Amino acid sequence: MTTTTRRRTGGAAALLAALALAVAGCSSPQEVPQESPSPVVQGPTIAPDKGPAPVPVVPPTWPLTGVAGEPAARPSLAVKIENTAVARPQTGLEQADVVWETIVEFDVSRFIAVYHSQVPAEVGPIRSVRPMDPLILAPMHGLLAFSGGQPGILDLVEASGVQMISQDAGAPGMYRVRDRAAPHNVYGTPQTFWDQADADHQAPPGEQFTFARSADRATAVVAGAPASTLAFRLSPASSPSWTWDAGSGTWLRSEGSAPATARSGARLSAVNVVSITAAHPNTGFGAQGGAPVPTYELIGSGEGVAATGGRTIPVRWQKESQDAPMRLFTMDGAPADLAPGNTWVELVPAGSGSLTIG
Asked: Could you say which of 146, 148, 297, 313 would form a disulfide bridge with 168 (CB–CB 3.0 to 4.6 Å)?
């Protein structure tokens, strides 16, 4: 091979090497492998928000007795009932939710019987209003049936917001019976009284005293002292007493030494007996012969006793205004709850009346 041939062969080889590099430079770059995605780490499971815990449903109760049941959509009905010897036995007292015993002129006892949960066929004998009536009844904003009253006392009752149903004003539902002498013979039909309720007196009353859900939870039962008798001296002419009867679970009433009964023959009884001691001043109103007509000072507070389940406990009563219900508290300020059932309230004149517990 000549020198020229060697040069050509070497040049060709160089050219081929250059072309190979060029082709390599024009080819696609090698793909970079992608990294695998990081695994997803799941956090702790969070329960969905269910909101606040449900509030327990409290069964409804009758407001004046605390007894379980759906209250009727009617107002309270108070009736002034006489309590002299010639008026006994009275009609309908055994069906009252609450009975307030008051002392009026001549040291005579007179009742304010309040009905709501029961509807007696008849009540009586019905008598006239007194100055303490609006203080007791204004918080219930209900009806008051009575036989009449002095103009000034009628003004007090009307101003209290209760609806007046008066025999003297010709209200339907009152009549005179023939087996008793006037003025002790006015009787009435409660349903007829309720039928007269106007548009402003349709609502049921609010709770007056406070009640435990059951008798064994009543404050006197839980924290009181045993008692078998409650002997009251409300005036020289009025000394009612109550005796605990475990068989019926009630206090049984007596007038002096005689058992107190309704005209139906039922013994007058109470699940709760509440003693309220309050000032008993005379007013400017006069009765027959100029005898002063008293009232009670029931706005404020004072001493009392709650008797339930054969036990008694001292309480303090408190009433903020005429329209406010009376509340009962223990000596340490806790509410004094009564047992579900009917209640008799004995208004004891401060300084002259008394309660002896046996």
From this structure: 148
Give the helix ranges, DSSP H, for 27-139.
133-137
358 residues of the chain, pLDDT tens digit each: 433 334 333 443 343 333 333 334 434 434 444 444 555 444 455 555 566 766 767 789 999 999 999 999 999 999 999 999 999 999 999 999 999 999 999 999 999 999 999 999 999 999 999 999 999 999 999 999 999 999 999 999 999 999 999 999 999 999 999 999 999 999 999 999 999 999 999 999 999 999 999 999 999 999 999 999 999 999 999 999 999 999 999 999 999 999 999 999 999 999 999 999 999 999 999 998 889 999 999 999 999 999 999 999 999 999 999 999 999 999 999 999 999 999 999 999 999 999 999 9
Q: Using DSSP, how many helices (H) and how many strands (E) does the chain show?
A: 5, 21
Distance CA 241, CA 239 (A): 7
